[in-house]
Design a protein that fits this description.
By secondary structure, the protein is of the alpha/beta class. The protein has helices spanning 17-26, 49-60, 70-76, 94-101, 147-159, 179-195, and strands at 2-8, 32-38, 80-84, 110-112, 118-120, 126-132, 163-169. Helix content is 34%, strand content 20%. The radius of gyration is 17 Å and the shape is globular.
């Protein structure tokens, strides 16, 4: 059985449309042991000078099994990652960005090769970003660009050679749209993704 790390970045709990969509996907992934990480409960704060000094000191001596790197080690050993968070201000919520900051550890989750190019050291073969959007995105329009997917794709490729996908329901807050129908269509796509999740 494979380990799927479900990173729940949905602060609205049961009222979250993103969580509803993500749970639909996660509940149908075959041959999977789901490990849930509830980001709001961690109360993460951005790194300050002290945390950076500690990180660098531990990294310098290769002490990557230290509790400081617990989140990075958890992430590194997952066979797949599902990250669920709402689309906010054309990107990801600050809580998610703060979490990702703890995952990018030189010498643990990635290293630099002989050509000075980063090489991922995480084993996940799939990363799915699940989100809901009140409006729509259009990467041909700088006002509507989906910076979240582009950013998470970069993180994915920095840390692994795993496949990256975005599963989204959008246009949910546009007057005249049937939000429930849009969510149901996205749930159908979640079912399709889960059926061939490990392919």
């Amino acid at each position: 059985m494979k380990k799927v790390l479900f990173v729940n970045g949905c602060i609205r709990g049961r009222e979250s449309r993103t969580l509803r969509l993500a749970q639909r996907l996660v509940s149908h992934i075959p041959d999977a042991e789901i490990e849930v990480l509830l980001l709001p409960a961690l109360h993460l704060t951005p790194y300050g000078a002290e945390e950076i000094t500690e990180r660098d000191a531990l990294s310098a001596v290769g002490a990557f099994d230290a509790p400081f790197f617990a989140l990075a080690n958890q992430f590194k050993t997952a066979d797949a990652v599902v990250l669920a968070c709402p689309f906010r201000d054309m990107g990801v919520p600050s809580m998610v960005r703060t979490y990702l900051e703890r995952l990018c550890v030189t010498g643990l989750t990635f290293h630099y090769g002989n050509d000075n190019y980063p090489v991922g050291d995480c084993r996940f073969q799939r990363f799915v970003y699940v989100t809901t959007r009140g409006g729509i995105v259009d990467n041909n329009d700088p006002v509507l660009t989906d910076h979240a997917s582009a950013y998470l794709l970069s993180i994915c490729k920095l840390l692994s050679q795993g496949r990256f996908d975005t599963l989204a329901a959008e246009g949910l807050d546009i007057v005249g749209n049937d939000a429930e129908a849009l969510l149901c269509a996205a749930e159908a796509e979640a079912d399709r993704i889960s059926q061939h999740f490990w392919d």
